[in-house]
Amino acid sequence: MISSKILNNKIIKCKKCPRLIKFSKKITQEKRRQNINENYWGKPVPGFGDLNARIMIIGLAPAAHGGTRTGRAFTGDKSGDFLFKCLHTAKISNQPFSNHINDGLKLNSAYITNILKCVPPGDKPHNEELINCSSYFYNEIINLKNLKAIVTLGKVAFDNCIRFYRKNFQIDKKFIFKHGQKYKLPDGKTLIACYHPSPRNVNTKVVNIKMMKNLFIKVKRII
Fold first, then answer.
1. The whole model's pTM is what?
2. Which regions of the chain does DSSP assign to beta strands (E)?
3. CATH for 128
4. What is the rounded average pLDDT for all residues in the chain?
5. Using CA atoms, how far apart are residues 214 and 5, in angstroms rounded to an integer?
6. Cβ distance 79 to 198 under 8 Å?
7. 136 φψ region: left (φ > 0), alpha (ψ -120 to 50), beta (else)
């Protein structure tokens, strides 16, 4: 096991996936108009939060103009805006927003990360890229010694989390993605499926603040 500080430094400096490194660099050169004067992070994005966390919240990968711009997962994009409103109402974060890495955000017994630490073109990672990142995800889980529950944001994150567990543990049962559904993992942790807080899901009312708040309150009861 390596410390969280050393792990995050390794993640930030990682160059295992040339396609992803090239794409991240391209994003820093092709900024959005509203962020044209900002310095983009443009590197792999490590997880963040409470190292005594009992809850891990995971997405698939950082957003092109969110985490890849700000250097923090679910920060500076609309998905993050909605997520932190929900986390704040559930008393998991101290504020209802996550704008940049020095905005004073603190998480209460929670840690947020992505399975893939770099944004992939078209949000579609290659298999070898997921394999390259799996050791980082494994170490994040190991470092959170009090971890009891893993909340996956979206079906893709859910499927890839299960894929990771199938490679590292003997699992026979079937996992079906359904918002709020919980499963016991072979290492004793509880996996909870959650809709992704994307603008599309929010705008089409697939998910709303009350639904997300209730899910996170349910997670807090589990732990």
1. 0.96
2. 48-49, 55-59, 110-114, 149-153, 182-184, 190-194
3. 3.40.470.10
4. 96
5. 33
6. yes
7. alpha
User: Quick check: helix, strand or coil at residue 184?
Assistant: strand
The average pLDDT across 58-67 equals 97
Count Cβ atoms below 10 Å from residue 96 Cβ, excluding itself. 15
Local structure of residue 140 (DSSP, 8 states) = H
Domain that holds residue 45: 4-222
Query: Tokens 């567990």 label which residue?
Result: 165
Residues in the chain: 223
CA separation for the pair 30, 69 (Å, rounded): 11
Strands 110-114 and 48-49: antiparallel
Give the Cβ contact number of residue 209 at 10 Å: 15
The dihedral of CA 54, 162, 63, 143: what is its sign? positive
Contact by Cβ (8 Å): 69, 122: no
Residue 151 — left, alpha, or beta (φ > 0 → left; ψ -120 to 50 → alpha)? Answer: beta
Q: Write out pLDDT tens, residues 116-160.
A: 999 999 999 999 999 999 999 999 999 999 999 999 999 999 999
pLDDT above 90 for 210? yes
Burial 79-93 (b: 16+ CB within 10 A, else e): bbbbbbbbbbbbebb
The total number of structural domains in the chain stands at: 1
Residue entry with tokens 């807080």: 197
Which residue type does 190 have?
A: T
pLDDT greater than 90 at residue 168: no
Cα separation, 179 vs 167, in Å, equals 24
